[in-house]
Specification:
A hairpin with a 6-residue loop joins strand 51 and strand 52 (1022-1027). Helix content is 14%, strand content 35%. It is of the alpha+beta class. It is elongated, with a radius of gyration of 32 Å. The protein is built from 17 helices and 52 strands.
Length: 1029
């Protein structure tokens, strides 16, 4: 995967970076990226009766081995060797005999002691991660456990460190042998015994999920960095820098580390340190007895300089800069350096509050550095389903999350064990919701003590990272009481409660998980429901409550056509599976990539039918994919914007399921496996921008969202409405000045798409209502989702005050299911004396259009006589019409909404775009009738050596150019340029409009020049510009 992406993995980084703490003593990488290191892999069964002591000698020759990949898995070694066909493609991975890999394997390598070694030094072997069990041998000796023990290292997050000083050969070959044993559970794909938590601590998705396949071997291997370190007799372990903020202008730092003396005699140790920026120096002495470990702590009482004035705080993305500090620690004995460690840390303060919503349920709310933070982000399962993501590739993935304007990633069941993930989250200001390895199906682990040891090592290893915002015990459940208590107490001790420990990922201040099937934007504005609706008692959901802090909500997400070609055989492209196949077929290749029953949560039938009904039936896969991107944009944007709409009025944040893909699939992603951004990426990027203007698809309300730490004052909110041809219709637009406080929202105005409705925005009075969210005013707000609901009794009434006498010719009643069986329409000029102008004794609900004899009145009343259900009268809209004013132009049924937010200096800070059908909701098929326009593309600026450029795309025609997609290909290779960071895509251009798009890619990908391809929606893609390097 990494070679295809052209990403460079630097072996130095792989060996150095760990836990935000880089080993600065003399070291040597034992990873496969070191050309002097060759790992040999072979099944234990093929080496029957041969011991680890024998295998770890220079005389042993491992014939017919497969070249190993470290870090990596056993299965990955066979893939890289070409023994297994590309597991990404078609159903190849499902054809592999998993039993071959679901058994123990030997890893073996040889190395010579590096020249930097000097006599009297200590030599250490480090293995950051092994899965699931490991036994270690070196130069003919067993160095883990006891001579007769097995499965000595248990768990994928446990670091292994061995002092091999007395076994090292100063000349000639040194040999390492590692026996990796796979998990005990679910030895075949179809086995019924649980994998999941039973195998924990491990990568819980290794036996398959609804977004990645069962992996032969279940990710067994040497899965973390391996390296050799040379030190003196005294070493530092798990150094930690804490920060406290008595005020935002003053930080108090403390430094601690374990000091281990591996010699037999006591040592007088001097630990000195330097913190940058600030050049803060300190030093402290400690005596450590032979063969013991002592804890050294240094704080403001020891060193006054550890009180830092006007410090640079670490902030999450959008709220400030993610400032980082380094601390270099050196421990010396008798004036000689024995060990050096360097840590990266951030000065920050996390706080958490439970804030009750309108129905008294608590909502977990995050604060950092005293600022309330609105959470925006996504869930992350595996970095890559075969653990092939390493080093620098993490920067690409985390950078894409930053570019989507996210500020949090949830590590679902803690399935990332690579320290680089956290390093780049620190760098880009992405907070991490950090799960442990438990999920809802089971919460009893097979080896509780191994789980605890791994959890302890995880916290010690990662606690320097400022990005970690919360520790979470289990996914959608609570850990068993013993584990739950252990985790809570351990984190209080080892992380000093600097971050919250929370037992469950979706309850206790959180609003549940889901739903996961595709739903249109309006749905999310109108209901907050999730799986906790089935709890006893049920979590309360409504139009104005129940959004809360949601850690999972998602939808199927079709990738681009260019990406689908990479993993679906051409013979299977078209037609798509039938509804019946999507529901029940196990074996078609679409299901193998989770468009089918394996991902039933994503409701693929609904997704396919939504694309077809909203955008029209397609004639082939490429056309369907293009239309699917439109659905992706609107659905993803709608989910985030619905939560934005309720910000702090119940909603505290949203994490979608999922933001990052581990496998080529059709579900749970924003960008796809090949880094091609889907429409979901662009929908998320838009909805999550720090300063944002948005439209409520339910009630046509326009709001401005501010998720920054600065107030927005004197801004202009503007809505422009265009007809299908791209002509502005001024009567429907609005402009208003708006102020928005930091980390808050403000209502600008509501759009009226029906100016002929005399009742719009007018005062409504009712005999009763069931709450503020169902008050009488809901029937005149122009929204299709809000409604008035009366008390559950007869009679009931509601009337509209038109403000003055009007000529009335028609009334439209839009009922919810709870309609009136018998009712009358009455008019009045004083709201005292009423005249009946219409009676219905057999009401059927739905939308009733009632033509009246023209009558002049100020008040119009609906008088309910008897209800059709046991519920109250429930009415969406009460519309009143007279003669149509000739000066107001009617909109085409399908039209466009362009929103702009302009700051006080005249700078455009947010632009948002929607398409709407005011006659047939969600029918966008008229987009297919738009004519082809004359598009042009010009180069604005380029710096190919930095991989950066700007291009401008212009619509030179007199009609709208809808959803123009821009992509780059390399002129020399004709391959897609991915990954690439772009400022915008799928842009709609009105007549004469031009937009500038910025782009950034690895310079290596641009060598040979690039072609800029532009595709107008529904038209052929064309090469619009060639750029030479």
């Amino acid at each position: 995967m990494m070679n295809k992406l052209g990403l460079i993995i630097v072996s130095v980084i792989l060996a150095l970076i760990q836990t935000g703490c880089a080993e600065q003593s003399t070291w040597m990488s034992l990873n496969s990226s070191n050309p002097r290191i060759i790992w040999e892999v072979k099944p234990q069964a093929d080496l029957e009766n041969i011991t680890g002591e024998q295998i770890s000698t220079p005389e042993f020759k491992m014939s017919d081995y497969v070249k190993g990949v470290v870090p990596g898995t056993v299965f990955t070694a066979y893939v890289e060797a070409g023994i297994v066909p590309d597991p990404n493609y078609a159903d190849n991975i499902y054809k592999v005999d998993e039993t071959f890999y679901n058994r123990p394997f030997w890893y073996r390598t040889e190395f010579e002691l590096p020249s930097f070694y000097s006599e009297g030094k200590r030599v250490w072997l480090h293995f950051d991660n092994t899965n699931r069990f490991a036994d270690f041998y070196f130069n003919g000796e067993k160095i883990s456990g006891t001579k007769t023990s097995t499965k000595d290292v248990s768990g994928h997050m446990l670091r292994s460190k061995f002092d091999v000083t007395n076994l090292i050969k100063k000349s000639g070959k040194n040999v390492i042998a590692v026996l990796i044993t796979d998990a005990d559970q679910k030895k075949t794909r179809k086995a019924k015994d649980p994998y999941g938590v039973a195998c924990s601590p491990s990568y819980l998705a290794g036996a398959g999920w609804d977004w990645m396949p069962y992996v032969p071997g279940r990710l067994a291997g040497i899965t973390g960095n391996a390296y050799l370190v040379v030190t003196g007799d005294v070493v530092m372990e798990d150094p930690w820098v804490r920060s406290e903020l008595p005020t935002l202008q003053k930080a108090e730092l403390s430094v601690s580390t374990d000091i281990r003396n591996v010699s037999s005699s006591p040592k007088e140790v001097v630990v000195s340190g330097v913190i940058q920026p600030g050049n803060i120096s300190f030093s402290k002495d400690i005596r450590v007895e032979g063969g013991t470990t002592a804890r050294l702590s240094i704080n403001k009482d020891d060193i006054a300089q550890l009180v830092v004035d006007h410090q640079k705080l670490w902030w999450p993305n959008g709220y400030g800069d993610p400032n980082l500090y380094t601390c270099k620690l050196t421990c010396s004995v008798d004036g000689k350096v024995s060990d050096v460690k360097e840590m990266t840390f951030g000065i920050k303060k996390y706080e958490y509050k439970m804030v009750d919503n309108v129905v008294g349920y608590p909502v977990l709310t995050f604060f950092i550095n005293g600022q309330k933070i609105y959470l925006k982000g996504g869930n992350w399962g595996m970095s890559e389903y075969l653990l092939r993501c390493q080093g620098k590739e993490y920067e690409t993935k985390i950078r894409l999350h930053k570019e989507m304007n996210y500020n949090m990633i949830r590590l679902w069941t803690g399935c990332v064990t690579d320290d680089e993930f956290y390093d780049y989250c620190d760098k880009y200001g992405i907070m991490v919701w950090n799960d442990f390895w438990l999920y809802v199906a089971y919460n009893d682990v097979a080896q509780p003590e191994a789980f605890k040891a791994n959890a302890l090592d995880k916290v010690r290893r990662l606690r320097n990272h400022p990005s970690i915002a919360i520790w979470c015990g289990a996914n959608e459940t609570h850990p068993a009481p013993d584990l739950d208590n252990y985790l809570r107490e351990m984190i209080a001790k080892e992380d000093n409660n600097d971050r919250m420990y929370k037992s469950c990922s979706n309850q206790d201040g959180l609003s549940g998980s889901g739903w996961w099937g595709n739903q249109p934007p309006r749905h999310h504005f109108e209901t907050s429901g999730s799986n906790l609706a089935f709890n006893t008692p049920a979590y309360p959901y409504g139009i104005d409550h129940g959004y809360g802090m949601r850690t999972e909500i998602g939808t199927a997400t079709f990738p681009t056509f260019e990406s689908i070609k990479e993993f679906i055989p051409e013979k299977d492209w078209w037609p798509l599976p039938t509804d019946e196949q999507l529901k029940n077929d196990d074996d078609n290749v679409w299901n193998k990539h989770f468009f089918g029953k394996e991902a039933s949560n994503a409701n693929p039938v609904n997704y396919k039918n939504s694309v077809n009904t909203q955008y029209g039936e397609s004639s082939g896969l490429e056309e369907f994919c293009e239309k699917a991107q439109m659905l992706n944009i609107e659905v993803m944007k709608g989910m985030y914007e619905a939560w934005n709409d309720k910000m702090w009025n119940d909603a505290a944040g949203l994490l979608i399921w999922m933001s990052h893909p581990a496998y080529p699939s059709f579900v749970w992603q924003t960008y796809d496996y090949y880094y091609d951004p889907t429409g979901a990426y662009w929908g998320a990027k838009k909805a999550c921008e720090p300063l944002h203007i948005q439209w409520n698809a339910s009630n046509n309300n326009i709001k401005v969202i501010n998720t920054t730490a600065e107030d927005l004052k004197g801004a202009i909110a503007k809505a422009t409405i265009y007809d299908l041809n791209g002509k502005e219709v001024p009567a429907y637009g609005q402009t208003k000045q708006v102020d928005v406080a930091a980390s808050n929202i403000a209502e600008a105005f509501s759009l009226n798409f029906n100016p002929f409705n005399l009742a719009y925005g007018k005062k409504a009075v009712a005999s009763s209502s069931t709450g503020a969210s169902k008050s009488a005013s809901m029937v005149t707000d122009g929204g299709a989702g809000s409604r008035w609901e009366s008390a559950y009794s007869d009679p009931q009434w509601i009337y509209i005050d038109l403000g003055k006498e009007e000529k009335i010719e028609k009334v439209i009643l839009k009922w919810e299911a709870a309609c009136a069986k018998k009712y009358e329409l009455q008019v009045s000029n004083d709201a005292q004396e009423w005249k009946t102008v219409y009676a219905n004794k057999d009401g059927r609900g739905g939308t009733e259009q009632i033509e009246l004899e023209p009558v002049t009145a100020r008040y119009v009343k609906l008088a309910g006589i008897s209800r059709a259900t046991q519920f109250g009268y429930s009415l969406f809209e009460f519309e009143i019409y007279g003669e149509k004013p000739k000066e107001i132009e009617e909109l085409t049924p399908l039209h466009f909404i362009k929103l702009e937010l302009i700051d006080a200096k005249g700078n455009l800070i947010s632009e948002n775009f929607y398409w709407r059908n005011g006659v047939r909701d969600l029918d966008y098929t008229l987009l297919n009738t738009l004519p082809e326009v004359a598009l042009s593309c010009r180069l604005v600026d380029k710096s190919m050596s930095d991989g950066k450029m700007k291009i401008a795309v212009k619509n030179n025609s007199e009609t709208v150019a809808f959803a123009n997609r821009v992509r780059l290909v390399n002129k020399a290779t004709q391959k897609r340029i991915l990954p690439i960071i772009m400022s915008d895509n799928y842009v709609t251009l009105m007549p004469g409009e031009e937009k500038v798009i910025t782009m950034e890619a690895t310079p290596e990908l641009l060598k040979g020049g690039v072609s800029v391809l532009v595709k107008q929606y529904g038209k052929a893609e064309k090469n619009k510009l060639d750029i030479v390097d």
